[in-house]
């Protein structure tokens, strides 16, 4: 049996050479019993001639394209879901790549164990890293099938950001899951991956994990702390609230209660990111007094204030715990020092 795997690739501002590299990583996939289609959605008119992409030819990959009015990555992915014709689907960002044999590993495991969603390990690579070092992320050290209560446990882990699995990419989705749930929340510009992936896994009866590389995430400076967004807190809060609303709709009371308990950690995790990316971002336009005011206002938001009050340590790496305690006790200078160290690590 030959299955078709649809790979949905949203494109916005990506250079043609980078997009080509992404699609070529699909063409390098090897294995029996599957073909692939690259469903490329341009989120607004590309800066290059899009017909060039339509003319790309690969023996095992069919390239299909569409252009939508600029509406964000969620709208582009949703358009791709609507076009996807495969029995299976994956999401790949245009500046990322699939490692060799990624599709074969995920699809073979899904077939053998009748899984609806299969996730693999992934690695993060900084684009400008001269030494080519990569940070690998492994959920487990062995392959595993999750069903019943273990599936519920996997879904709970998706609400624990420190686990690093609440991601749309790095997973293979069966078509009934892909088309059986609502698409990405187009009102969100942060947290849309976690909210969608959580719903997809909640809709799956059997989830698989393969401890082999299934995705390579290319980090770049523009997506890290060097970019300052005035609406960063509002966008983050919107994502947390959307996930809270999704959890509130779970129809299993015991599981819903467990998920609600995990949401405090979800909020706290993102508060530490706000501390680095927003409150102590070197590119923020504030003077010292204005930065202190932003610090107080952010920590007093109910969505962060209540989890901070209830936090007594643990569950996070030591550096993140230190950041949380500095904010819990309103130790502005300690928070600033932790952020300074982190920015030094980033090279800012």
TrEMBL record:
Keywords recorded for this protein, A-Z: Glycosyltransferase, Transferase
InterPro entries (alphabetical): Glyco_trans_2-like, Nucleotide-diphossugar_trans
One term of GO molecular function: glycosyltransferase activity
Entry EC no(s): 2.4.-.-
Domain Glycosyltransferase 2-like: 6-136
Transferase recorded as keyword: yes
Alphabetical list of Pfam families matching this protein: Glycos_transf_2 (PF00535)
PANTHER family per record: GLYCOSYLTRANSFERASE (PTHR22916)
Name listed for the protein in its UniProt record: Glycosyltransferase, group 2 family protein
Organism encoding this protein: Bifidobacterium angulatum DSM 20098 = JCM 7096
């Amino acid at each position: 049996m030959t299955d078709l795997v649809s790979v949905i690739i949203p494109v916005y501002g990506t250079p043609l050479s980078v997009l080509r590299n992404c699609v070529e990583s699909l063409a390098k996939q090897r294995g029996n019993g599957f073909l692939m289609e690259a469903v490329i959605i341009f989120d607004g008119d590309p800066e290059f001639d899009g017909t060039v992409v339509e003319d790309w030819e690969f023996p095992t990959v069919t390239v299909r394209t569409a252009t939508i009015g600029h509406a964000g990555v969620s709208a582009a992915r949703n358009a791709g879901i609507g076009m996807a014709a495969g029995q299976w689907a994956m999401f790949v960002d245009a500046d990322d790549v699939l490692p060799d044999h990624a599709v074969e590993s995920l699809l073979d495991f899904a077939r053998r164990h009748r899984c609806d969603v299969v996730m693999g390990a992934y690695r993060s690579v900084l684009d400008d890293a001269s030494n080519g070092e990569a940070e690998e992320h492994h959920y487990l050290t062995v392959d595993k099938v999750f069903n019943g209560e273990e599936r519920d446990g996997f879904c709970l882990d998706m609400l624990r950001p420190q686990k690093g699995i609440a991601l749309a990419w790095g997973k293979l989705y069966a078509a009934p899951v892909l088309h059986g749930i609502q698409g990405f929340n187009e009102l969100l510009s942060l947290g849309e991956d976690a909210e969608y992936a959580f719903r997809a896994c909640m809709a799956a009866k059997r989830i698989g994990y393969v401890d082999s590389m299934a995705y390579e995430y290319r980090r770049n400076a523009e997506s890290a702390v060097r970019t300052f967004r005035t609406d960063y807190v509002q966008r983050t809060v919107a994502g947390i609230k959307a996930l809270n609303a999704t959890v509130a709709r779970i129809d299993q009371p015991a599981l819903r209660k467990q998920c609600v308990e995990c949401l405090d950690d979800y909020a706290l995790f993102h508060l530490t990111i706000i501390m680095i990316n927003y409150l102590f971002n070197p590119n923020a336009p504030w003077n010292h007094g204005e930065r202190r005011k932003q610090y107080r206002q952010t920590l007093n938001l109910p969505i962060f204030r209540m989890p901070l009050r209830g936090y007594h340590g643990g569950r996070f790496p030591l550096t993140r715990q230190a950041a949380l305690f500095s904010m819990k006790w309103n130790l502005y200078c300690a928070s600033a020092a932790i952020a300074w160290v982190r920015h030094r690590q980033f090279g800012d």
